[in-house]
Design brief:
Layout (H helix, E strand, L loop, with lengths): L1 H24 L5 H19 L3 H15 L3
Helix pairs in contact: 1-2, 1-3, 2-3
Length: 70
């Protein structure tokens, strides 16, 4: 369980960077989607900082899905 938790902990910042990169390059996102993605990204980052990596990854994956990235 510790290995899994550590792996998730280190993956959260990578997911945030991927979302940020996608946001910087995508111009065809509706304002509504952009607002939702940014909220999910920020919530995921906050959860990561609070040690809730499973919840963080869930939010970050949802944001990535909305952006159409893997």
């Amino acid at each position: 369980a510790l290995v899994s938790s550590a792996a998730m902990a280190s993956s959260c910042p990578l997911q945030v960077k991927a979302i940020d990169a996608a946001l910087a390059s995508k111009t065809d996102i509706s304002d509504d989607t952009l607002t939702k993605v940014k909220a999910l990204r920020n919530e995921g980052e906050k959860l990561h900082k609070n040690g809730k990596h499973g919840e963080s990854m869930s939010k970050l994956m949802e944001a990535k899905s909305m952006l159409g990235i893997k």
